[in-house]
Amino acid sequence: MDQAPQRPDLPPWQQPDSVGIVETRTFTFAEPPNEMRLDSGSKLGPITLAYETYGRLDERRRNAVLICHALSGDAHVAGYHSEEDRKPGWWDAMVGPGKAFDTDRYFVICSNCIGGCKGSTGPSSVNPATGRRYGRSFPVVTMADMVRAQKALVDHLGIPALLAVVGGSMGGMQVLEWAINYPDRVWTAIPIATTPRLTAQGIAFNVVGRQAILDDPNYRDGDYYGHEPPKRGLAIARMLGHITYLSDESMHQKFGRQLRDRDDYSYEFDVDFEVESYLKYQGQSFVERFDANSYLYITRAMDYFDLADKHGSLQAAFRAVTARFLVIAFSSDWLYPPYQSKEIVSALRANRLHFAYYEIPSNYGHDAFLLEKARISRVISDFLALNYARALTEEKP
Fold it and tell me: Judging by beta carbons within 10 Å of its beta carbon (0-12, 13-18, 19+), is residue 140 exposed, middle or buried?
């Protein structure tokens, strides 16, 4: 991994390690009467997926890497959408020439999940059958449903097997579904800061966030499009979620008990502390870019994620898997603690599968998978390079 030095004379999108200006594209499939059947038994179609790609497929189509995003992520994982764009993709430090997902070697794909609100079919999409937005008539989707839609995209791109499927948090759940459901389509799997099932604690956080949205007077039973959206409820949900992404140590280091623009307590309920101001900002900025119904549907999909229950046991879930695994966890992650990644490792070991496990010391909490870029880049880069060489010389079973 030899990253080119930055060029101060060039704008961000022209830096040697940037993928530059990129475009979000769409792929539509499952047109009626061939809708996609969901785990719930409902059918959904047509389905549009928003996606971005970076780099080029090699001649044998064996260098494709699929990146799965977390709850609030989207298809824009790297680069800039225009020269005026000041915010790069959400994992820009990891994707580009010389980076962990080296676009000089690999063809990187990232798609927005179904149920989302960043270009893929979700509750805010117009239902072609009615001409109205789905709202709460959108069917409940699962992680496996999201992966089925991704597979349709991979098929559309003409990729027989993915060199790697990688993702953190909710993205890691999709990585596990890929490896289990499509063993002949995945060479390697890289689940990061994730879990094989959402715990009662994780469900509890989701319940509180959803209830804040459902109780917002502007929610209107999900039919708020064209009206004032339930911003207050969504902001509270985001504030609660953001607390779970941090650690006690990182909050102490970042905020402590520092007051915000004052020397003493207000003895009112205005913003006194820096951490109050930070959470309010996170909540308010989130409502400008995310749909409340999508928050409900995606967190519900996370609630239902339980590989052991679905397959009889976690060991049984991995019985048909052939992919090699790189499992990464972070010491201070209390949302998906390292012991949950070790449960994945135990199931891999019980099935005599090839794996590597890295628990990275970090104070960043769950957000470490987005912030500890330098520490995970070397591990991922070496793992990918080794398995790319293997993929070029072996045949997938």
Answer: middle
Residue 19 token pair:
């993928």
Out of 72, 120, 125, 169, which one is annotated catalytic?
A: 169
User: CB–CB of 187/163 below 8 Å?
Assistant: yes
> For this structure, is 266 an active site residue?
no
0.90 surpassed by pTM: yes
Active site residue 145: no
Q: Rounded to an integer, what distance in angstroms lies between the CA atom of residue 36 and that of residue 32? A: 9
Give the helix/strand (H/E) hosting 44.
Answer: strand 43-44
For the segment 26-55, the average pLDDT, to the nearest whole number, is 98
CB count in 10 Å sphere of residue 5: 9
Whether 333 sits among the annotated catalytic residues: the reply is yes
- Hey, which residues does 25 pair with through a beta bridge? 51
User: Which position among 341, 366, 367, 381 bears the catalytic label?
Assistant: 366
The per-residue pLDDT for range 243-280, each reduced to its tens digit, is 999 999 999 999 999 999 999 999 999 899 999 999 99
Average pLDDT of the chain, as a whole number: 96
Catalytic residue among 102, 291, 333, 367: 333
Where residue 378 falls among pLDDT bands split at 50, 70, 90? Answer: very high
